[in-house]
Amino acid sequence: MKDAVAQGTDELFTAIYEGEDDSVVRLLRAGVSAHAVDEEEETTLHLAAVQDLPGIVRLLLAAGADPNRGSGPDQGELPLCAAAVWGHTEAVRALLAAGARPDAREEFGGTALLWAAGNGHADTVDALLKQGADITLADARQECPLVLAARRGSPATVRVLLEHGTDETQRRAALDESRKWLDVDIAEELETGLLRTHGDGHESRTRRLAQQDGTGIVMVELLRDGEPFAGHERETGHRAIVALLEGELGQRAE
């Protein structure tokens, strides 16, 4: 039988997975550590951030969970980045309010702002910048958040970054990036990238979603036995981004 500590830890992770705030409170009050990790070395706080559970994030922080503690076997995954990559803005705000470092880098060099910008989460980008995230920090390929947002095709995210201040070099790089996508078949490009990563021979599925701002999202998934096992998506706002950046730079469309 499992000892009481291990059982309590298992119960806490189950409560987080199921989003049961009351159970989390009960277990923390019973002495289960907010610093607990599961068999894969994932921390409770990282899991709550991934699951978009800002209430539980706050409970764990109040119980002493470290907002800057890494998760995973190499402790290379940060809860702030986990929330940012999925656009979980309230969890991001809770972590920042508790002292999460906005520019902390994960194992492979990503920051919360780079993740949020690259995935088109404008509200999350805004929250991070308002709490001091550095808009100039680049990723391992020396690409800044504005370039990543331009590649994503997210006009809303580009607007937020421009409002917070970007220099001319960043704007020109982002303009060059967005122009590259004007005549690209996004679905075909995404499928090619997925097959390059996972190997040829997989069935694929493409979905297109409309957004309120008039742009769309193209989603491509690879299927195994009819079920998706890998996917990627991109927005279709590159033309709008070109117009935005040309306006900022005083250029005319080519």
From TrEMBL:
Q: Where are the ANK repeats?
A: 40-72, 75-107, 108-140, 141-173
Keyword set, alphabetical order = ANK repeat, Repeat
Family annotation (Pfam families):
Ank, Ank_2
Is this entry keyworded Plastid? Answer: no
The protein's matches in PROSITE patterns, at most eight in alphabetical order, are given as:
ANK_REP_REGION, ANK_REPEAT
The UniProt entry, under InterPro entries, shows:
Ank_Repeat/CDKN_Inhibitor (IPR050776), Ankyrin_rpt (IPR002110), Ankyrin_rpt-contain_sf (IPR036770)
User: Does the keyword section mention Nucleotide-binding?
Assistant: no
Q: Which PANTHER family match?
A: ANK_REP_REGION DOMAIN-CONTAINING PROTEIN
Name recorded for this polypeptide: Ankyrin repeat domain-containing protein
Q: Which organism is it from?
A: Streptomyces albipurpureus
